[in-house]
Amino acid sequence: MYRTWMRFFTPGPAHHRLGLVCLGVGLQHGRLPTVGPRTLGHHTAVVISAGSGWYATPDGRRTPVTAPALLWLTPGVPHHYAPDPGTGWDEGFVDFTGPATAAYTELGHIEPGHPVVPLADASGPRAVIARMARAARRDNPLLEVETGAAVHELLVALRRTRADLAPDGDPVLDALARDACLPLTVAGHAARHGMTPAELRTAVRRGAGCGPKDYLLGIRLGRAKELLAGTDLPVAAVARRVGYDDPAYFSRLFTRRVGTPPVRFRAQQDRAVPGGWSDRVPDPADPPGIGPTDDPPAP
Known about the structure:
alpha+beta
């Protein structure tokens, strides 16, 4: 009627300090029995890749589940679900916990308020779960570290394949990234894209898990770091390049967010080479090659 495979782990204190640990992984398919009502003390992601069924909220209301879909089982929240008895379904599940779950929830990767999440495609998350299953052999000395790292990957894969979000960003985030270094306020960016500031905040938080101010700041400071490490532009020129007319304000902002002043960051990231700095940051997707004339001298 159905088949099931599962493994459960007990990571130690040091593993928990990595932020996320995997407590168990399983692969099941067929006319699986009803789960619950029950309450867990950890998070579980149940990825349904084929079939259909239902999920019941604590008040007894049933929500249809049609693959591909994700069930979020949240600590302390009663849950009750099952595949259709006539057809069953194909699922992979991962039990996990750790202090990083709070940050993933804040960023929108874990959604306690949305226990049933339609997916555009389950192949990415299922591939991660399959790797976790392969890592779960009992003689694997890296089992806890390997499966814990895969939980991070799984949360990213699940966020990427949500059916209600574009897989590789969305037009609003693309436009903000393109215009991030223009000297505009959040209201100015909103107006530029035909939105109110409230609409922009909602769109960015939905897509990136943070507000537009933090999203823009992350892009600006990332670009500033590249210019500081890869060019000899003065700090004031770097500030202007990333949208700040006041270099003193830029320096205070950089220091507060990065933890070190721009000048010290440049010294720490010194990449000096013979011939001096380039004033153009290379495209990481197309790094410059080393031709025959660039070979280092023979010893």
